[in-house]
Amino acid sequence: MRILLTGSTGYIAQRLLPVLLANKHHVICCVRDKNRFDIQKFEGFNVEVIEVDFLKKESLNKVPLNIDAAYYLMHSMSSAKEDFSKAELQTATHFKDAVLQSHAKQIIFLSGIVNSGSLSKHLQSRFNVEDVLKSDRYALTTLRAGIIVGSGSASFEIIRDLVEKLPVMVAPKWLNTRCQPIGIRDVISFLDGVLMKEYTFNKAYDIGGPEVITYKEMLLRFAKVRGLKRWIITVPVMTPKLSSYWLYFVTSVSYPLASSLVESMTVDVVPEANDLQQKLHIKLLTYEQSIDLAFGKIAQNQVVSSWRDAMNRDAYPDRFKKLIEVPIEGCFKDVQCMKVDDPERVLKNIWSIGGSTGWYYADWLWSVRGFLDKVFGGVGLQRGRTSLDNLSTGSVVDFWRVILADKKDRRLLLYAEMKLPGEAWLEFKINKENVFTQTATFRPLGIPGRLYWYLILPFHAFIFKGMMRNLVQHQSSTV
What confidence tens digit (pLDDT) does each residue in 137-153 have? Predict the structure, then answer.
């Protein structure tokens, strides 16, 4: 079958795509920027990539007519804008308009559980999108999930941060809210299983794991799996806003995402019973099995996708490939050069920078900068990176975003996502003569930007020199 896949660079789609390709489907992946999609990972499979922005109606003509089914996996949960609901409805409307021009017989939509009488803004928006997607020209199959547990999922990473960092938690009362977490592997099984199954046409199904538990139980059982003793005290005085700040400072999520999650966590998210699991012959993983599976992927450095690599449209309203052209005029630069004897080893070190590896020099200063970024509402250093030694365009490296990762050309370009009075790039490149050049570029915004550069200039004098020296000298450990 020919299948249209939206949200192709997102957490769910990156897990679903290999399954669809393994089943011999031809998949057309919709992305806003082709540079963000690593098509080399799927060499030999029937996959193509098209650039479509469903907020821009003029780009819809790129959606092919000859498709059999489509997956709607777009979501704006991390958006900081108040009108995210309006944007979601517009995106869904444009998607529907494009599909109506095609031969598609089924749309599969992954939504949130909406059984509570009081819905959060994001769950209400998901319900509204579902209503928009309905049509008598094709069949709509909706799968509604709550907490998804898997390596790289936002829920998993939040729970991990809380459990591993805090031996004692003074937590808000919403930890007593009930939910029914489901493993990412089971979510993908449902998404793949309902494809072109006529008995699922024009129906909505809640999907969840095998048991209902509270968020507090989730944390304590996670700790038990990890062999940790944790104590949780719930208090009624934490408002949703305070709870959001609590999540923001303790975990790696952004404040908009933390706020959205807290709002959704204040109501029970329990699926209504149905027979879809039996019809698709899916054996659900327990919560503990999902955790074990996630850590197995992490230990093997096989995390396929992560929430952290999702890009906030607010921060990149236009295609970010324009950022590849690092500005020259009106910029401050710190340039370090060194001839290297073993360029491949240095390249490997460059591709491992950040995350658990660190920044090769004065990591404590990078940590201080990350903490200050959090204080001023930035992303901080806690996001880390998805893979230990692999980078691709669009990946996150702590508070940087990968704009270009070209191993063949031996060039890595990062763009700063921390709070700054200006814009910053960090570039690593090894030329044909094996000269390694490390360039930090800062384009200041007004007088505050210039003051900022001169304020941190004394630190740059030794940080960037030390980083280059250690990047060249570092010997990777072998197992």
Answer: 999 999 999 889 988 78
